[in-house]
Automatic annotation (TrEMBL):
Belongs to the CTL (choline transporter-like) family. Keywords: Antiport, Cell membrane, Glycoprotein, Membrane, Transmembrane, Transmembrane helix, Transport. It comes from the Eukaryota. This is Choline transporter-like protein. GO terms for biological process: phosphatidylcholine biosynthetic process. It catalyses: choline(out) + n H(+)(in) = choline(in) + n H(+)(out). One of its GO terms (molecular function) is choline transmembrane transporter activity. The chain crosses the membrane at residues 12-36, 217-237, 244-262, 300-321, 341-365, 438-463, 484-504, 583-607, 628-648. GO terms for cellular component: plasma membrane. The keyword NAD does not apply.
Amino acid sequence: GKGPVMTSLYCTDVLCCMIFLLCIVGYIVLGLVAWVHGDPRRAAYPTDSQGHFCGQKGTPNENKTILFYFNPLRCTSPSVLLNLQCPTTQICVSKCPEKFLTYVEMQLLYTKDKSHWEDYRQFCKTTAKPVKSLTQLLLDDDCPTAIFPSKPFLQRCFPDFSTKNGTLTIGSQIVFQDGNGGTRSVIELRDAANGINKLLDAKSLGLKVFEDYATTWYWILIGLMIAMVLSWIFLILLRFIAGCLFWVFVIGVIGIIGYGIWHCYQQYTNLQEHPRSVLTVYDIGIQTNISMYFELQQTWFTLMIILCIIEVIVILMLIFLRNRIRVAIILLKEGSKAIGYVPSTLVYPALTFILLSICICYWVVTAVFLATSGVPVYKVIAPEGHCIHENQTCDPEIFNTTEIAKACPGALCNFAFYGGKSLYHQYIPTFHVYNLFVFLWLINFVIALGQCALAGAFATYYWAMKKPDDIPRYPLFTAFGRAIRYHTGSLAFGSLIIALIQMFKIVLEYLNHRLKRTENTLSKFLQCCLRCCFWCLENAIKFLNRNAYIMIAIYGRNFCRSAKDAFNLLMRNVLKVAVTDEVTYFVLFLGKILVAGSIGVLAFLFFTQRLPVIAQGPASLNYYWVPLLTVILGSYLIAHGFFSVYAMCVETIFICFCEDLERNDGSTEKPYFITPNLHGILIKKQLVPQKQKE
């Protein structure tokens, strides 16, 4: 008996290969063009009304790293503040004001002590003088009429809102002078910014999260390294004690979930005995400060119920799938033998990780350079909103001599954004879409390449009659080279389909975001149905693609022919889905959960200062759940990368087994390639129909 041997190697799906290579060349050209036109400093540094960077080295603003708004009351929304399009003058300062003071009050103090002007002038233009009348000051617009207590955030001075006894205040005051002879309340300042308090909370959360990452990145890397070592250990142990290790997975997962239930119960009872707040989740609503939720009894009670449900589901699945799990363990043992003969497959996830990291970094860098491409664009801004020339493009150098300045007294020519009228600048939105699409295509291609290379290596193992003597040297390297040289077009074809589906999903989410305020119940229902359909379609195509890549690795045919053959083979062996996918993946899923859960428990004890004997965790964290969730998610992704090798191995072996049964009959002339022990068990379990003998 002979296995399916590719008698003639040839390139498949050449047209798709050429299109794919052209897209990559275009992607590289796009990156180079964006690099020439873009300037990441525009994203890193805030820009004043004259288009100058705050804090840029080698400029007069080198020591002035913070952007200051003359009159934040003129800003109508938080997005206007962050986009630097607030209709008020903005200058670079070295620090934010710390107290209330109007220009008129400063003039009165200036007659007694000239140092008050030195404190005030740092929030004015360099041409400002302390002896102007209020009318002249408003006309020249070179000083703010009043300054408010502010704090630097995102390199910008934001009003320093705080809550005192349930009342919103700024600088411990509820009312203040606006410098124009009027008295304003803190509510007016907040409303003028259209909910700036929530914006500050959200951005404050982002800053605190960044600080936590800066403090714990070293420990996060150590946790991820431990997860990698633990995943490797589990894969090696599967080679020898798959059955025993399965029960370790089961007991470990049940134990970790049980620990979570116990911890939630402890927190719930503690809050019952010593309540920190009488509020409920209905009272606080949606908050950006997530830590507030952990002070509520409802939060811990809800988490406890969710974990209890998960625990029951896992136990029930173990009970009802016990027979299938036995077969899955046998398949894992056979997969362990294959990995033992081709140990290089355990290192392949690292290569996949490197390639994916390169794709992600290139996409992010290109997106940043595209977003910062252009030249400064200045717009006419009328503080009072009564100018027919408002939002027109202007030149700040000659603005005061134009008809616009005469027609609209008090109008400003301020920096608005970076842009341009060239052909390149007009197509920047299209370039962003192209950048995202090719990124998705490349990501799916890297995954497809890994699946095809692994399938080729494991198929080489299966179709070797005398193992390991008939296994060629470097099977993974050979399979990888064969996939790159002959089947790049087929892999690009399959990954293109997935990329198109994912692109449609992103467009759907974008439309949902844009139409969120105008949608009704019917549109919400349709969007939900579309999301569900695209999710099902994406997973179905991924499943079919994975099996098509296995057929490509075995026979070397094009994508459509391989997908058709794989689909027909699966339909003839429909129970294959129940074994190699659902049950085997369930067993491996328990392993992933055990790795992520074990590292998560250790990280929780460490970041909450509960392991002082082993190591002293960081004591200055704002939110311990930031590094904790990062470690858990990262550990799961690492375990998924390693265990996916086993999943691909089992799936390839089963596909080859189904082919083996259809090609051979077990006779001396056509012997089976599968080991007799595994063949007997699979036939006994009736996972595939026995070939009827004539």
